[in-house]
């Protein structure tokens, strides 16, 4: 993997090659990463993985025609050929009136903000193995755990550099540390599986292996002997590890490209009060050590903090330059790059702000409801907002979490779900989308 200085130089040199080959404008992205993971199962080494990779992608513009291409061969000869092929491809594509680099006057100026995304320490393979072993040992020590799918520990490092033909050239480095355990409780037809997992930029921000392992074990045992729910409307409370998906659907619907294509359930609803006026959903690209923190976006524009929902309303579309041109608006610094294609739209570290009531207080008046700890299936329509997903979790009886339940579906429409959403006060920060426990009234549960 190239050093950060060399990564910036390689991206900039590829842009110059494209210009020499006939491109009117171009940008190039270098992405390099190295990772190591170790998995332990039943106290024995199960798997060791080591991966390293480098990739450059080039986007060129010939007039209003564009093409994107990439390679993992970073030799001079390969990059020369890549630039020539990209320009030839662009000349053969249809005209796109919205194609082009981000406006030059909007590019990030000066040094990018320091976000502390790189852990200087590097755990050895021996340390990773010890962490994975301790994680699994703690999970297997929980009474009722009968088998293990393994404990794992991993460490990774990545570098990103972006260069454009109108003068932007910068990059940053990130690290990743993770721990997980997955175990089985019970036996025969009673078996239940659950897990615990944490990921952070710095190893110091992880829970200890013992904490993660114990959490996985307790979760698996708690799921034993699930009952069934009767169908009907009831309050639904979502655990933070699944509640973030609801906010993820909101973020996806805020894509400016979807708005331009008129394919989002938020279309023509930006002026409506969709949430309770106390609800805030925020995007924080400059959060120190955040999993999705970034100093600039995939087109070189500065990233800025923004409330996505405020006073009950969605505050506008998330846009790269192409979407902004289609909507006759300004890009918002939400372009993301990956692979060989043009930028897509993505938020950074998103969170639903904590409410004022504890989870217990939030559930205290629910005589009959359900606490959802797992969701599966993909029954979400991004155009209409219709929502239906399989679930499992726990019955709520007289304001308290009771026996486990499984094999039911929760359904509604996301617009109505947003309006019925009430957050608790237990927000934690260890995911890309962070939410507290929250309650949604008015959903339909389909069980027996």
UniProtKB/TrEMBL annotation:
Domain Metalloprotease TldD/E N-terminal, first and last residues per copy: 26-90
Cellular component GO terms held in the UniProt record: cytosol
SUPFAM superfamilies: Putative modulator of DNA gyrase, PmbA/TldD (SSF111283)
Pfam families xref list: PmbA_TldD_1st, PmbA_TldD_2nd, PmbA_TldD_3rd
Gene3D superfamilies: PmbA/TldD superfamily
GO molecular function annotation: metallopeptidase activity
Residue ranges annotated for the Metalloprotease TldD/E C-terminal domain, each copy included: 231-447
InterPro entries in the cross-refs: Metalloprtase-TldD/E_C (IPR045569), Metalloprtase-TldD/E_cen_dom (IPR045570), Metalloprtase-TldD/E_N (IPR002510), PmbA (IPR047657), TldD/PmbA_N (IPR035068), TldD/PmbA_sf (IPR036059)
GO aspect biological process, one term: proteolysis
Ranges of residues in domain Metalloprotease TldD/E central: 119-224
Family: Belongs to the peptidase U62 family.
Name the UniProt record assigns to this protein: PmbA protein
Species this protein is from: Novosphingobium marinum
Classification of source organism: Bacteria, Pseudomonadati, Pseudomonadota, Alphaproteobacteria, Sphingomonadales
């Amino acid at each position: 993997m190239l050093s950060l200085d060399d990564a910036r130089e390689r991206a900039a040199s590829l842009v110059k090659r494209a210009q020499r080959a006939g491109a009117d404008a171009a940008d190039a992205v270098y992405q390099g990463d190295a990772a190591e993971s170790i998995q332990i199962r039943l106290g024995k080494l199960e798997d060791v993985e080591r991966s390293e990779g480098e990739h450059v992608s080039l986007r060129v513009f010939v007039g209003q025609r564009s093409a994107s291409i990439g390679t993992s061969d970073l030799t001079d000869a390969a990059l020369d050929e890549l630039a020539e092929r990209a320009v030839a491809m662009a000349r053969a594509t249809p005209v796109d009136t919205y194609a082009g680099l981000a406006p030059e006057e909007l590019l990030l100026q000066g040094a990018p903000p320091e976000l502390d995304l790189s852990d200087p320490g590097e755990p050895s393979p021996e340390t990773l193995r010890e962490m994975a072993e301790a994680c699994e040992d703690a999970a297997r020590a929980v009474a009722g755990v009968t088998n293990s799918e393994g404990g794992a520990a991993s460490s990774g490092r990545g570098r990103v550099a972006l260069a454009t033909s109108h003068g932007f050239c910068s990059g940053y480095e990130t690290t990743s540390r993770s721990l997980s355990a997955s175990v089985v409780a019970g036996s025969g037809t009673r078996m239940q599986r659950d897990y615990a997992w944490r990921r952070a930029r710095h190893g110091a921000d992880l829970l200890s292996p013992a904490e993660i392992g114990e959490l996985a074990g307790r979760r698996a045992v708690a799921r034993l002997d699930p009952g069934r729910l009767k169908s009907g409307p009831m309050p639904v409370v979502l655990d933070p590890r699944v509640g973030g998906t609801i906010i993820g659907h909101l973020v996806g619907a805020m894509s400016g490209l979807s708005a331009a294509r008129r394919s989002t359930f938020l279309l023509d609803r930006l002026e409506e009060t969709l949430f309770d006026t106390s609800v805030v959903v925020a995007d924080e690209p400059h959060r120190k050590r955040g999993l999705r923190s970034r100093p600039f976006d995939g087109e070189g524009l500065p990233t800025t903090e923004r409330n996505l929902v405020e006073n009950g309303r969605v505050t506008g579309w998330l846009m790269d330059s192409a979407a902004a041109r289609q909507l006759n608006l300004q890009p918002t610094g939400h372009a993301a790059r990956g692979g060989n294609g043009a930028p897509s739209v993505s938020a950074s570290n998103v969170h639903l702000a904590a409410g004022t009531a504890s989870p217990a207080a939030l559930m205290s008046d629910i005589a009959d409801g359900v606490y959802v700890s797992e969701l599966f299936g993909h029954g979400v329509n991004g155009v209409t907002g219709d929502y239906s997903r399989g679930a499992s979790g726990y019955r709520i009886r007289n304001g308290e979490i009771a026996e486990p339940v499984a094999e039911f579906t929760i359904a509604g429409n996301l617009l109505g779900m947003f309006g019925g959403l009430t957050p608790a006060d237990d927000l934690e920060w260890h995911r890309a989308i962070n939410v507290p426990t929250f309650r949604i009234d008015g959903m339909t549960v389909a069980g027996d």
